[in-house]
Amino acid sequence: MSTPMKLGMIIDYAGGFAETVEQLVAYEQAGLQTVAIPEAYSFDAVSQLGYLAAKTERLELMSAILQVYSRTPALLAMTAAGLDFVSDGRFVLGLGASGPQVVEGFHGVKYDAPIGRTREVVEICRKVWRREVVDHAGKYYKAPLTKEDGGTGLGKPLKLINHPVRSDIPVSIAALGEKNVALVAEISQGWQPLFFHPEKAPQAWSAALEEGFAKRDPALGELDIQLQIAFHLGEPSPEAVQAVRNQLALYIGGMGARGRNFYNQLACRYGYEAEAKEIQDLYLSGKKAEAAVAVPADLVDAVTLMGEEDVVRRKLDQLYAAGVRTLLTNPVAADPADRIEHVRVLAGLLAERNAQDGARA
Question: Which tens digits make up the pLDDT trace of 157-211?
Fold first, then answer.
């Protein structure tokens, strides 16, 4: 039987949190199933997720994402178990490596071995949730920390005091690089890519996904691609389109130094090598408006869910065929009532296509 596509929403850390939370009941009535909270170098996501757990009863809650560098593996496991506890088993742990500009610039922690660290973090988290004694001697994390590894020698192997609501909290990992994506396909229940181009995704990631799937434990089930995507039902305003252009210019042009910008590298893998170079050159020279103009219109269209109902239906089919199973929409209508109505219509379109898939199966 085919997996139905779920309707979620990403709550923007730049503002509007209180307003959106007040409207969550209306969004849930409109068909919303999942809410994700990002964490960059803004307010922490955990406090907001705890607040949402208290304010909601059925919505699935997800971090999008907690950085593997800014918390110890055991703390990540404790946090996930705590959020799963206060939400009665509704939490998905979204993890990611972020990048050196944030990790080293804001947290003051060395950005090294993102793949190896992510693998060990997930291993330790799952051990904690199963209430196994944490006795981990990995390449990047050691617990207990022995005297030989720089500790006092007083550390002792411990296990989580509480019994978690679930012994296997779902893990979702944000990744763009080919080796990172291979790791996701191997060990994670979910994958959070950004700027996902459904038609060009195979040329960017098919080899990496195949490599990871070859090592995947079948018990993990189908990989759930959880996609953050700007959403507008009907013709979007020029301001909404410009906001997407500005975001793409920021990420492709300025989210990382030359040679260390993962989003620029992704645009190149999509086939936009010349455009990616131009956007980066303009952005890093301070010409942000010109960088936004240089973003290809077809890229803007491909990585958004905007248009009349027939256009949205077609895009939903493309996204599903590419493996997307959870939409983390960012409704961009200017009026809050319109955003709720757009989500209601989208929920209907998803129910329609899910029913058709079920009938075909």
Answer: 999 999 999 999 999 999 999 999 999 999 999 999 999 999 999 999 999 999 9
The conformation of residue 134, written as its DSSP 8-state character, comes to B
| Two tokens, residue 114 | 């993102």
> In angstroms, rounded to a whole number, what is the distance separating the alpha carbons of residues 31 and 29?
5
26: its two tokens: 């209306």
- Nearest to residue 339, comparing CAs of 248, 194, 195, 234? 234
What's the half-sphere exposure (Cβ side, CA atoms, 13 Å) at 261? 24
Distances (CA, A) of 180 to 30, 183, 193, 237: 35, 5, 11, 36
Radius of gyration of the chain (CA): 21
Q: pLDDT tens digits for 199-238?
A: 999 999 999 999 999 999 999 999 999 999 999 999 999 9
H or E segment and range at residue 182: helix 178-187
Residue 22, pLDDT above cutoff 70: yes
> Position 169: which residue type?
I
Q: Which helix (H) or strand (E) holds 360?
A: helix 336-360
Domains and CATH numbers, the chain: 6-232+308-360 (3.20.20.30), 235-304 (no CATH)
Q: What are phi and psi of 327, to 5 degrees?
A: -90, 125
